[in-house]
Fold this protein.
Amino acid sequence: MAPKLEKPATDLVWPPKFPSPKVEVTAAEDWWILAAMNSRSDPWDLIVYNFQTRDCNEVNWCLHHLLGCRRTTQNGRNYEFGTPCTQKQYLYIPNPAWQPPSSADDDAWELVRSVLNTATVKGLYASVGEFGLSISPHDFSRICDLINTKRIAVRFDRHHPHAAEYVSASDTIILSELTRTAINRSMIVHEAVHASFDDRRSQGVYARVIQEECFCYIVQMLYLQKVLGGTWPSH
Ligand SMILES: [Zn+2]
């Protein structure tokens, strides 16, 4: 039996987004050995860190196309490290604090994705000449793309002090609630605008913090006005 291969449904980031030690792997290692060598009890931590999937067929696709694996396990269902292979094989080791996304993180990602990938959001345009700031459908499409491909991560943390927050140091949107109220959705839009300015900062475009914050609220309110049809929320 040959391994089943499936291209990952989400375009993966390879190598993983943040610099991490790269190790060469050979027939002497497998996922369990690598996990034990790096003080991880679950080999899936390393698989998810490298390939951002828990789907076995997608893992096989990654091993085949990214690592050049051709050697298969005894039952023939999966690839493993070592010869025959098409190249030297390397994997990345997450730092000890890194944790794989939980199912709640996945739910948060789905929520953010479903809120932003809408005609309402992608049709938002705002510009404040006084601040020299603007956001366009093009900017929202770019943020959607970064979220859809998980270059911007989404995490759920019920103890987080804000309903939503974009953290530029880790390119992550954190949600503390997973409800789809108009207010919560508007906060996701607010954070997406922060994410857009952060993205533009990496291209040398800067906004003053207070002006960026005001602008995010303006866009958030524009969004609310659109989804509530002009009826302002009562609280
Ligand atoms: Zn803000």
Notes: The pocket of zinc ion is lined by residues 190, 194, 213, 216 (CB under 6 Å). Helices lie at 31-37, 43-51, 56-65, 103-116, 119-122, 137-148, 182-201, 209-227. DSSP finds eight helices and seven strands in the chain.
